[in-house]
Amino acid sequence: MDIFSTEDQDRIVQTISLAEAQTSGEIRLVIDKKLSEPSAMEAAVRYFRKLNMQQTVQKNGVLIYLATDDHAFAIIGDAGIDKYVGPDFWDETKEQMAVLFRQGDLVQGLIVGIQHIGEQLKTYFPRRADDINELPDDIYFGKN
Length: 144
Description:
The chain has 5 helices and 4 strands, in the order αβαββαααβ. By secondary structure, it is an alpha/beta fold.
């Protein structure tokens, strides 16, 4: 998918890796051109399951879903992180990202969101010596 340059993809993946280096939490990013479900949240839920995000040991996976052509996105966190952060956290994160998206800067919007999520994950799920990276850090590009 030609939405992001190789350099942009590298910056995003590096941001995910840096955020995860401080936490046992897992962050995944899914990009579609068009919504794959009636809503961005429904698509996020479907990808959350498809990518086995619910199988993290501490239930602390977070998925960011973005449908670029439809200008829609959603963030979903597993039960472990949702127990600590309320819905206001997800709304606040989405608003930080949306400000940059509206300015046409998808990459920086994603980076800001990933960093913000990483800080919360670090607070509630700090990295331990025996932590392993349970899920890939790469961007998952949908089929459309």
